[in-house]
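Task: sequence in, structure out. Protein: histidine kinase.
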Amino acid sequence: MRFWPKSLLGQMLLAVAAALLVAQTISAALLWRAAENRREEVALNAAAFRIVTERDRVWRRDGEGRAENRAQRGRPGGESRGDRRRRMIEDGRPEQLPRALRIEKSEASPLLSGEKRKPALEADLTSILEREGVAVSETVVLERLARTDGFVRSRPRLLRRISQPGYENIKLIIAGVRLDGEEGWKIARVVKPPPQRGAMGTILVQTLLIYVLLVGLHFLLLRRITKPLKQLTRQTESFGNGTSDLEPIEPQGPEDIRSLITAHNAMESRIAALLDEKDVMLGAIGHDLKTPLAALRVRIESVEDEAERAKMAASIEDITRSLDDILSLARIGRASAPPEKAELSALVRSVVEEFEDMGKAASLGDMPRLTQAIYVTWLRRALRNLISNALRYAGTAHISMLQEDRTIILRVEDSGPGIPETQIANMLEPFTRGEASRNRETGGAGLGLTLARAIAEQHGGELMLQNRESGGLRAEIRLPL
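Result:
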């Protein structure tokens, strides 16, 4: 995934943030549902109260209400109805509808075509009325916009009121009941309380605070875990690349991480000791074998037969070169010095000039100027091996260098017979040759490509072999830029 972080710290923080977001979303949904249920319950209880007290209720006349309002307006510091209405609209809070939404008696059910009943509220209303001793034959509860209700629209004063700004979305809970022994319906209309303002803002602030606390604490905790892991990774990479004289990592972090670092330090120390022993052993082997070979080379000078002497000298030289290749292959990855910056085109030109001075048909292609940190001696050895193979099997070699994305490609091409596709992978293994003889001019010892592959891998790259469509073989050392 494009936005999925690669580090352990990033993935853990993203997982915590995602889980927290899901939890807060569910919590917000549950809170909203609970608030919605409370609004409906408040309206339903008010409707039930009106139905229960309908017989005994004495409704105030409109004139009395107006007189009361005039008395209120005449009080010192009193707020008139118009002032209160303007203030509430300016605050974004529509004033409550008047109490003219009294009980309506009707022969028909309040449910209209296309409207949905609320079975849960109907059951609650029936239960409330039965507890109050009201015998109910049938109950209907529904929700309707106040501006679409026929009862409201039949009253001009109410219609003018709901036509004002702020009343467009006011809803009514309409409860209709038919009592036992009666044919008609008693219908109560109650304004559904508006949603509590600021609830979502409170949830957002709460979520933000939880994010800051939890994600911040997780960041500190995970950083304490991942910091020593990053140091361990860098140490392992450096050790794997052959860097010597590395200081052991100081154990830090949680106990599990400390134990891992301690075990790594012990393993690294043991491997370093084994590699040092290997280098000492290889040096001894090289000395013990090359010394008698050199003495043997001197002794054959006394052989009078020139042809026989030349064969013996070639055999000794062949053994010496094979021994050099074996020792070089064993020492790759144990560089005594770090890689150095070098201009690759100059390096390639110098190698090609060596073959040109020997009269070999080696030619140069495109050579862009690219600087890279490399092990100069080893990379020079790899190029020599690839060019020597091309000259040995095809007689010519064309060397070029190019860059593709973040990869440097050192390419050696020839026009020889190539390699069967089924044997390309095997050709990179030690002592595997494209020609069955041990003749140095044809088959060699079979270590050239293996050395080139090991050197490419020492630089973090790879060696690729591919048959050309026009004939011949293409060998490429691919190095990350």
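The first strand starts at residue 104 and ends at 106.
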